[in-house]
Amino acid sequence: MLYLYQNGLTKFIEVYVQRVNSVRTPQVVGGLLNVDHDKMTIKGLLTSVMGNFPINELVHEVEQRNRLKLILPWLETCVENKVWKWKEEDRLEQEAEEKLRRGAKTGNKVGR
What we know:
Elements: H1 2-6, H2 10-20, H3 25-34, H4 39-48, H5 55-64, H6 68-80, H7 87-106
């Protein structure tokens, strides 16, 4: 992914997570955050991925980089539209929201 990013081939990153390997979406998002890629592009990437991928890994990747706020609207939309069929994903979304609230209350940075 880094090669694609460094060579301006970001469209191929989108194709990779959409059609080739959606399971790697959390790692791709983490890599894009590492290189401080445009947040609107990352949000667009998430909304474009049709395949299943581990949401808990996405939350972990984004939380590691202190950017949970970035994916919160996407998580909320997924829950509202009942994108996930398993209660596990609802719990993960609620945990991410709770982490954001705790950070806001204590004054900790929870994202840019």
